Amino acid sequence: MNFKDLEDKVVQHAISNLEEDRPPWHKPWTDDGTVNPLMICHRNGATGHVYSGINWFITQMSGYESNEWFTKRQAVELSSEDKPIPYEEFKKGTAILFYKPVFKTEDGVEEFAYRVQRIYTIWNREQINGLPESTLDKPEDFDPHTEIEKMLESLNLKGGINIGGDRACYVPAKDAICLPQDSAFTDENERESTKAHEGIHATGAKHRLARKKDSYAFEELVAELGAAMVCASLGVHLDKLQHTSYIKSWLKCLKNDKQFIFKAAAQANKAVRYLTGASNG
């Protein structure tokens, strides 16, 4: 598969789901007691590396219940079998993108020059025979609500977090987030998603990531994707879109610009890293 084929597949998946008012990046999962809720995001089962950006989107849309993925070499090494991936499953490998920065040195100073883009193939745990069971343990006393509260507090909003009323929004002019009372939400998962959504918006402020807002629809897609990424990482289950009013705009953009979802996923990933503190090391 080349990049154009992968691009077409991702875009068509997003379009078909949005046309049916389904979120193409939300997927129910099964927790069998062996998966760490902090690692509920799709990840490499051998290294623990969590897929991010467009690769997060690609693995989320795969349809597999397991969130663990392996390269062919990893599958062979971990299973101790010569051909742990049956032929029919081997043909169904999932293509993901790998970006590698290339630097050049001028006058003794190393500077970024360009980025190499490659396509790699991975297979889901469900496609591979002979793999040992996941050994990740669940942390004790883990609470997604507390984690998201910490993320919002870490933003050090000039206008603070204002609780009350019937609106949830980020106010750029005041650098403030407004949220209804917790008791006003009918679903605790949607409550946490709403908080993450507004937190992602706040990361775009000039004194944070200075995210360029190409359009309201683009910014909302970044926030929607970012909130989904945050919630998935915390084990918060989502099964519907937050801002359905933007579906028509998203569809128009996706049909006119195949890079739209790729750009939004990249910006959402940056926002999530900022919100979770990953950008600070």
Structural features:
7 strands, 281 residues, alpha/beta, 9 helices, globular, three-stranded mixed β-sheet, four-stranded mixed β-sheet
Structure description:
The structure is a single chain. A hairpin with a 4-residue loop joins strand 6 and strand 7 (176-179). The longest helix is centred in the last third of the chain and has 19 residues, at 216-234. With 281 residues, the chain is an alpha/beta fold. Mean pLDDT is 86; it is low at 28-39. The chain has a 4-stranded mixed β-sheet with strand order 1-2-4-3. The protein has a 3-stranded mixed β-sheet with strand order 5-7-6. The protein starts with a helix and ends in a 5-residue tail after the last helix. It has one domain. The protein is globular. It has helices spanning 3-19, 53-60, 72-79, 87-90, 144-154, 188-203, 216-234, 247-256, 260-276, and strands spanning 43-44, 68-70, 94-106, 109-124, 160-163, 169-171, 176-179. The chain has 9 helices and 7 strands, in the order αβαβααββαβββαααα.
Topology:
Blueprint (H helix, E strand, L loop, with lengths): L2 H17 L23 E2 L8 H8 L7 E3 L1 H8 L7 H4 L3 E13 L2 E16 L19 H11 L5 E4 L5 E3 L4 E4 L8 H16 L12 H19 L12 H10 L3 H17 L5
Parallel strand pairs: 1-2, 5-7
Antiparallel strand pairs: 2-4, 3-4, 6-7
